[in-house]
């Protein structure tokens, strides 16, 4: 299992120790949740913070834009050196065009779905995607309880991917811990985003390891 700790749960008064932990840990990616206060009812951090993070972090960046008009920020995400740029289907009118532009910028493209958005809406774009990020909480805030129906949603997405021959990885974000992560792994998830479970743990290295072995 790939593990992508969410910076949203880190200590923003002193990010360096948390980023050094990320560098030394078994995690595969660092998940960056960008919120604009419009698409979601919260504001997180922007590109100045992410540029500072990118200078320290040695892990690939998984940038999740919870913002309106994400297509306007492709070059800025590219300049961070991000591996993935993930945007919300619900926030973008021309998904295919945006995916093409992300690929042209040299990044992997992902589409995220809110809890109430069915995976069937990806039928005509799934073969062009590198990642699908399923929200297992309502986007906008960390620390929310896991929405149990996400497990079956992962199974439906796995079936769609296998039926179409897509290479997209399934990522899940929200309420992830060793217990929910086990259910998601069994259902077919490839990547788990974990915020408070990692950064709130007494031993974040062990928390990451508990997800890696699923």
List keywords for this structure.
8 strands, 8-stranded parallel β-sheet, 214 residues
Structure, explained:
- By secondary structure, this protein is of the alpha/beta class.
- It contains 8 helices and 8 strands; from the N terminus they run βαβαβαβαββαβαβαα.
- It has an 8-stranded parallel β-sheet with strand order 1-8-7-6-5-4-3-2.
- It is globular and about 45 Å long.
The helix/strand series, from N terminus to C terminus, equals EHEHEHEHEEHEHEHH
In whole angstroms, how far apart are the ends? 6 Å
Rg, alpha carbons = 16 Å
Estimated helix fraction? 25-40%
Number of helices: 8
In the sheet with the most strands, the strands line up as 1-8-7-6-5-4-3-2
Q: Which geometry do the CA atoms define?
A: globular
The percentage of residues in β strands lies in: 15-25%
**Total number of beta strands:** 8
Can you give the mean pLDDT?
A: 97
Q: Main beta sheet: strand number and arrangement?
A: 8 strands, parallel
Category from helices, strands and their pairing: alpha/beta
């Amino acid at each position: 299992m790939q593990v992508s700790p969410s910076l949203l749960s880190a200590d923003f008064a002193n990010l360096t120790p948390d980023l050094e932990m990320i560098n030394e840990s078994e995690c595969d990616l660092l998940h960056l949740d960008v919120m604009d206060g419009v698409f979601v009812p919260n504001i997180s951090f922007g590109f100045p913070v992410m540029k500072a993070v990118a200078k320290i972090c040695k892990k690939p960046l998984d940038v999740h834009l919870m913002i309106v008009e994400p297509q306007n920020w492709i070059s800025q995400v590219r300049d961070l050196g991000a591996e993935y740029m993930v945007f919300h289907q619900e926030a973008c009118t021309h998904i295919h065009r945006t995916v093409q532009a992300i690929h042209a910028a040299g990044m992997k493209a992902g589409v995220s779905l809110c809890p109430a958005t069915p995976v069937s809406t990806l039928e005509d774009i799934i073969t062009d995607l590198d990642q699908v990020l399923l929200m297992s909480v309502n986007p906008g805030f960390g620390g929310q309880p896991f929405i149990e129906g996400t497990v079956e949603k992962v199974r439906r997405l796995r079936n769609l991917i296998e039926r179409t021959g897509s290479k997209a990885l399934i990522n899940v974000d929200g309420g992830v811990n060793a217990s929910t992560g086990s259910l998601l792994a069994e259902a077919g998830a490839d990547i788990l985003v974990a915020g408070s479970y990692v950064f709130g743990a007494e031993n974040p290295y062990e928390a990451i390891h508990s997800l890696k072995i699923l």
